[in-house]
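S., here's the first fold you wanted:
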Amino acid sequence: MSAAGASNYTLFQIKKKDLEVPIQGKILNFNYYESIYSPMVTGSIALEDTGGSVENDLGILATIKDGMKITGFEEVSFIVTTRYGELDFKNYPLIVTGSPANLDESNRQVALLNMVSKTEILSSSKPLSNNYPAAPISETVTKILNKELKISKDKLDIEKTQNQDKVKGNHLGALDCILKMCKKSIPAEGKDPGYFFYETQDGFNFRSIDGLIKKGIESFDNEEYAKMHTYYYFGALAAKLDDEYGNDFKVLTTPIVRRDEDQVKAMQQGLYCVRICTKNSLTGEYKEEIKNLLSDTNLGEKQEKPVPNNTYLKSYVFHISPGQDDPGVSDKILNNPANYIPQSNMRYSLLHSQIVQIQVPCNVQLKAGQVIKLFLENITQSNKNEQVYNNLRSGYYMIRDLCHSFTTTNSYTSLTLLRDTRELYRSNK
C-alpha cells in the first residue's frame, strides 16, 4: 500500500437529529485542513449519490442531501485509514456548515458539504460575558477551554506564560477571545512574545513560537519521528523497489517559494532594532530606548543584524496608564504593551521570512505546528555527489497549513512551510 494510493474509509456517516446514515454514495474527494492560524479544523466532501441512500418523508429513496434535508449543523463522523495511521473523528464529528453547490443530473447528484470543528459551533453560540481576573494568561486560556467549552485537559497542549493579564469576555466567542491573547503572551521559558492558538486532530494548542521551534527540533532525537518527518526533493522520483518506504517521503511536485527574505521590508517592519517611547500618565515620566529585537531561537542559523548598532527604521509609542483596570487608586502596570508588541511583531514577521509550499504522499502523522526536515536538491555544474543538497534551503521548516486530500485513487498531503533564517546545512546524508 503506497502512501499516495487510495486510502480506506473505515467509517463515514452523517447524523441529523436521531437519524444516522452511512455515506453510501461515492466520495469523489475529501479534504481535511489544519492551520496554526485557525482555532478549528475544517473539511469538505464532494459526494456523488445516485439516489438510493436514504428514504425521504414520503418513504421514497433519495440522495443523502435531499432525503435528510441537509442544510447545516449535521454531524459527520469518519475514520480514514492510511499507510501511516488513521485520521479518526469518530467521537468528535465535524459539523456541516452548509452545502453551497451541487450538480444535479437525471441519474445522479454531486453535492459539496463544508464542515467545521464542533467546538467552533459551541464557541460561536456561547459568547463570554464575564471577565477573568489577573492571572497567568496560560491559566486563563485553560480555564476558558476547560470550563466554558468543556474540553478535557488531555486534549489541551497549553504552554505556560510568564506574564499575567486581565481578560474581558466582551461577548466574544471563547475561541476568538483566546486568539486576542496570542500576541501579548510571553513564554515562561523564553524571551520572545508571540503564541499560536490552533486545533489539530490531537486537540487544542496554545504554544509560543519559541516553544514550537524548540520542541520540533528536539523531536528529531526520536528516530521514529525523524523518519516520519523528513522529506526529499529531486527532479525525478527514484525507483527503490528494495526500500519499504519507496517514494513515500519524496516531494511530489516542484516546491513553490511564496516568499523569500526582503531585508528592506524586514527593517521597516522592525525585525532588528526599533525605538520604543513610553509616557507614564501617572508619574509623567517619558522614556525612550533603542531596543535590539534579535531572537535566540531559530529554525536555521542564529539571527544576525545586518545594520549598525542604534540604527532603526520603526518606532513604537505607548501611553501607559497604571491601574486603569483596577478599582480605586493603583499604580500597578499590568502587562505593559511595550514589553510585548514590538517583540511579538518581530517574531511573527521573522517566522514568515521564507514561505514554501510542497505536496507529499499522504502522512496523517503530520500536524500543523510541527517541524519537518526538508532536503532540496542542489543545482550545480560541479560533481553533484560532492554536495547533494542545497545547503541554504535544506533544513528545518515549520508546518503553517496542511491539507490531507483523499480521492478515489490517490491520497496526498499539501503543506505550507515557514522558516525564519537560513540553515547552512553541511551534511550530504
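And the second, which I think is the more interesting of the pair:
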Amino acid sequence: MIRWLGRGLVALIALYALVVGGFYVAQRPLLFTTGPGLETPPVYADRPITVQTLTTTDGIKLVGWYMPPQPGQPVILFFHGKRGGLLRHKPRWDAIHAQGAGFLVIGYRGFSGSQGSPTEAGLHKDAEAAWAWLSARHKPETIVIHGYSLGSGVASKLATHAPNARMLVLEAPFTAAVDVAAETYPLLPVSLIMKDQFRSRDWIGDVRPPVLIVHGTADETVPFGHGQKLYQMVRSEKTFVSIEGAKHNELPRRGLYPIIWKALSLT
C-alpha cells in the first residue's frame, strides 16, 4: 500500500510539473493573440485615416493609424487589448470621428503587420514610440492616453512618463495581468513563472494626469473588482464609472465615449 501511494504521489507530481511546464511554454500565445496582419483603415472623407510607420528605440517598425483632430479637440492615443486587428475597433474610430477628436492607434510588435514578437518590455517600448510620435505633433496637454484591457497595463506605465497628458482613460483594467492569471489558474505558481505580468498596481500611484476608469459590472474577462481596486490606488484626480450589466467588450456600445467626452468637458 505504501509503495502504491508513493507511486501515485510521484505520478501526481509529474503530472503537475507537466501542466506547469505547459503553461510556461504556452503563456505568450495565451496572453497575446496577434490576429490579422495589415488591414485597410475605414474611410472618413473629411479627415482620412493615414497609415504611419513608427520606429521604436530598439529598431522595430510599427504600423499605426492616425486621424488628426479638429481644432480645439483632443487626440486619443489608444492601446488595444490582447487581440490583434485594428479594424475590429471601427466603432471606436466612428465615435471619435463623430466627436471631432483625433486618434493614433498602433499595432503592437507582432500585431497588425508590425515587426517583431510581443513581450511586456517590447510593448512598453512600442508605447513610448507612439507617445514620442504623437507628442511631436500635438501638445501633450491635448493627448488622452486610453488603454483597454491588456492595453490598460501599457497605458498605465506610459502615463507615469507623461505628466502633462490631458487624461488617462482605463477601460476594463486589471490590477495586474498576473493577478488575473492567478485567479484563473489558482493551482499554478503563476506569480513565479509568468514572464509578462503588467503590474499596473505598481505604476498607477505615480500617474499625475487625471484618471478615468470605466468598467462593466458583468465583465467576464477582467472582473469588476480589479477596476475598483485600481481606482483606490490612484493618487491624482480620479473618476470611476461603472456600466451596469456590461461585459468586457461591450463598453464602446454601452456609452463609453459619451462618458469620456463628459470627463473631458466636451459635452
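Why I say that: The first strand starts at residue 50 and ends at 55. The longest helix spans residues 2-31.

Talk tomorrow,
H.
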